[in-house]
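Q: Hi! Curious about what NAD-dependent epimerase looks like structurally. Here's the sequence.
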Amino acid sequence: MSKTILVTGAAGFIGFHVSKVLLEKGHKVIGLDNINDYYDINLKLARLGELGIDKREAVKELNYTSSSTYGERMIFVKMNLEDRNALPKLFEIHHIDVVCNLAAQAGVRYSLENPEAYADSNLTGFLNILECCRNHKVSKLVYASSSSIYGNSDAVPFDEMDRVDHPISLYAATKKANELMAHAYSHLYGFETIGLRFFTVYGPWGRPDMAMFLFTEAIINNKPVKVFNNGDLSRDFTYIDDIVSGVLTTLLDTSDNTSKYKLYNIGNSQPVQLLEYIEAIEKALGKTAIKEMMPMQPGDVKQTYANVDLLKKDFNYQPSTEVTEGIAAFVEWYRKFYNK
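A: Let's find out. The predicted structure is below.
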């Protein structure tokens, strides 16, 4: 049975991929994004182009009628998540069944430069979403949390039952706040909320501020690759297709769950050392990186490692993409998109 689904952050990396698969499955997608300039808006507009949204339509403010080549099953709206007048109006116009909130001010390091953007989007914006879900009887909200909330925990793999009271970046603090806010609303108003703690997502159409993109770009252009903490870092790199699979499984599940509030890690559960990751990119490109060893950056964590047993148990989540396979797919897309 098809649903009408609001996907916030639809021009973003994960939101674009989620929207695309939902459309392919026959659902109606209301895509929302403010198309800010945190990174190149041309990449965001190109993603929307893949969803059939003309870039001339995508830049219109509060456009409730910009349908795509998918017909009325894809409607795009340019809007700030924190807009307390426009967002409720959007919910009034469209009868939304479930919400997938992937919009947020992303990035750990940028939160040191522009903390206000995180308060606006990640806190006020998330509250606005919760209020709209409450007032318009939305049955389920699936939202993006982050592995960054685990901070510099030495207890690996990271488990959902771990205490996460010591975030080391404002970005992480806002994601922890989202989880607490969702808990309050599920408790008070009875609608289902599912928080997904994403672990270092990468793949085609990825964000230019992420390691995969930065390393590939630097190596191709014969520029130094900045290797933080002298390479003594590891990440649970998770391919975009595995992330989308987990998001859609939780989003479209129709079982009658007694627990209205849930949190899940969603990762590959196979951490990779940073230097090994760079080596795999070198192999995919057929080119050696110029490495510039750097100290640890403020707000960064030394390691991430997801225990995904709970998501496997409840939703049969099975990540299947090896890092070398995912890197090859990203490099192929990068070369084609940037004509390298």
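A: A fun detail: The chain has one domain: 4-202+238-268+305-320.
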